[in-house]
Every structure is written in structure tokens, then in C-alpha cells.
Hints:
81 residues; membrane; mainly alpha; transmembrane; 91% helix
Amino acid sequence: MSLILIAMILALLIPIYVAWRDDEIWQKMLAFASISSKTSMMILIISVVRDDWMLGVVGVIILAVGNAALMLLAHIIKRLN
């Protein structure tokens, strides 16, 4: 279990590096969407292992609402440009 979490955290570092390095707004938004998705998947895996469904509900809310908010922000930025 801990090996899976370590691998997921290492995979989470890749979009963090991309967001830190790139100055283009679209690349940053893609990196933040990737971070949101990977974090919610980590929460869902932990909730299944611990058999804690309340934590799973939080993971699903983060997955649904986090990406929806990011898409709304992308459309607003696209309209402004």
C-alpha cells in the first residue's frame, strides 16, 4: 500500500514541476487539473483501503467540482482574450 502511495506522490510531482516552470496560462491550468485529478484519485484509493466511505465522498466531490471550476475558469479566460 505504501509503495502505491509513494508512486502516486511521485507522479503528482510532475505536473507541479510543469506548473512551476511554464509561464503559459493554459499549460498551468492543465497542470492544475492533473494535480486535482491525481489528488482525488489518491483520496479514493485511501478511502477504499480504509473502508471509509465518507472520505470517498469527499474524493468524488473534489473530482467533480474541482475540474468543473477549472473548466469554467478556462472559458472565462478564453472569452477575455
